[in-house]
């Protein structure tokens, strides 16, 4: 994993005489620590609420099972932020910096790719429910999804564990990078993990694009059929504008909610993985000058922050796409069922018979 702890240049070391090569600047040591501190506080609050609500909801659908796994991943990711803040701001001790390299950074990337995999599964589930809205589920299918979830966690834990074990060298100076702590086998495994993670991301990106292309086509067909039916209905009786305008707005909101998963995926994960390719080349090829290396490092850190923002944006998915989550939350807060209907596109949360195409907020 590429998240590294790099610190001020060693005084008198000629390799650092050009200060532009140093990664320590206001952006790294001040701006990002402040942003991550804010992200930790808000993310901890939102994800604590999400955990408290979700684990009162039975796992009766594939969607809820996937969301619960994302909640767990987000909570773990959120607890890695304070360590990054201390490390980047140069306030951490050498021992804590070593812990960041060996454990905290590994957990951060582990949870990121778990989220990416479950975003792909959610996209498949939403596509299935859109194309075949009346296909139900049963205990056997739910058990298979739980086993699949366990297999994903097990696979990524096994994949990442050597990064912890093989990051075992003792730093020769208090100014070090995470790669300085890796053994030769650790550097090799680090490269293997990077390739596997790239496959995970690009595979899920293709899956998400295909699924939402199919969803878009089906929504367009549904819109065309509805428009045709309304046009035919006007031959007998012209509908009142006041009665048709509100349902049309509600339908548009519900259809927009379907694409929330797509929006969060593209905002959080796509920029980082596009920036990661040239950054990795700058780390492994001696053809980049210091200014370009610094720019690519800052670009990688900026897009990494967007990936971290996923822990803050996921609760929006829970709220807008999962009726069970909203219902439990409103009951807990003693709010009426129709609360926030102007956001979700629903007048009430009491009906349960809508299909995902007609009502994207039903968590089934």
UniProtKB/TrEMBL annotation:
Keywords: Cell membrane, G-protein coupled receptor, Glycoprotein, Membrane, Receptor, Transducer, Transmembrane, Transmembrane helix. Coiled coil: none annotated. Gene3D superfamilies: Rhodopsin 7-helix transmembrane proteins. One of its GO terms (biological process) is microglial cell activation. Residues 46-318 form the G-protein coupled receptors family 1 profile domain. InterPro entries: GPCR_Rhodpsn, GPCR_Rhodpsn_7TM. GO terms for molecular function: G protein-coupled purinergic nucleotide receptor activity. The chain crosses the membrane at residues 34-55, 67-86, 106-126, 147-166, 192-215, 254-274, 302-321. The keyword Transmembrane helix applies. This is P2Y purinoceptor 12.
């Amino acid at each position: 994993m590429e998240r590294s702890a790099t610190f001020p240049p060693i005084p008198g070391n000629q390799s650092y005489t050009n200060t532009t090569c140093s990664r320590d600047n206001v952006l790294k040591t001040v701006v990002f620590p402040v942003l991550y501190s804010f992200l930790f506080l808000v993310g901890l609050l939102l994800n604590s609420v999400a955990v408290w609500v979700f684990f009162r909801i039975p796992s009766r659908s594939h969607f809820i099972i996937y969301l619960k796994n994302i909640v767990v991943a987000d909570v773990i990711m959120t607890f890695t932020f304070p360590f990054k803040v201390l490390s980047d701001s140069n306030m951490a001790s050498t021992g804590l910096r070593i812990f960041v390299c060996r454990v905290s950074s590994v957990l951060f990337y582990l949870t990121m790719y778990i989220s990416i995999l479950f975003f792909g599964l959610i996209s498949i589930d939403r596509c299935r429910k859109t194309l075949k809205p009346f296909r139900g589920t049963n205990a056997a299918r739910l058990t298979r999804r739980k086993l699949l979830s366990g297999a994903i966690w097990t696979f990524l834990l096994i994949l990442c564990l050597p990064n912890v074990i093989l990051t075992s060298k003792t730093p020769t100076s208090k100014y070090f990078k995470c790669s300085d702590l890796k053994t030769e086998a650790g550097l090799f495994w680090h490269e293997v993990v990077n390739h596997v993670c790239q496959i995970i991301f690009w595979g899920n990106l293709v899956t998400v694009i295909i699924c939402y292309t199919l969803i878009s086509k089906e929504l367009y067909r549904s819109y065309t059929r509805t428009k045709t039916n309304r046009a035919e209905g006007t031959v007998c009786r012209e509908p009142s504008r006041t009665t048709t305008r509100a349902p049309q707005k509600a339908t548009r909101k519900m259809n927009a909610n379907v694409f929330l998963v797509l929006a969060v995926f593209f905002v959080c994960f796509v920029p980082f993985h596009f920036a990661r390719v040239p950054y990795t080349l700058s780390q492994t090829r001696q053809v980049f000058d210091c200014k370009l290396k610094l720019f690519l490092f800052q670009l990688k850190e900026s897009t990494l922050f967007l990936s971290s923002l996923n822990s803050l944006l996921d609760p929006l998915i829970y709220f807008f796409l999962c009726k069970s989550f909203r219902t439990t939350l409103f009951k807990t807060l003693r709010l009426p069922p129709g609360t926030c209907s102007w956001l979700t596109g629903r007048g009430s949360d009491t009906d349960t018979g809508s299909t995902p195409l007609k009502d994207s907020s039903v968590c089934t």
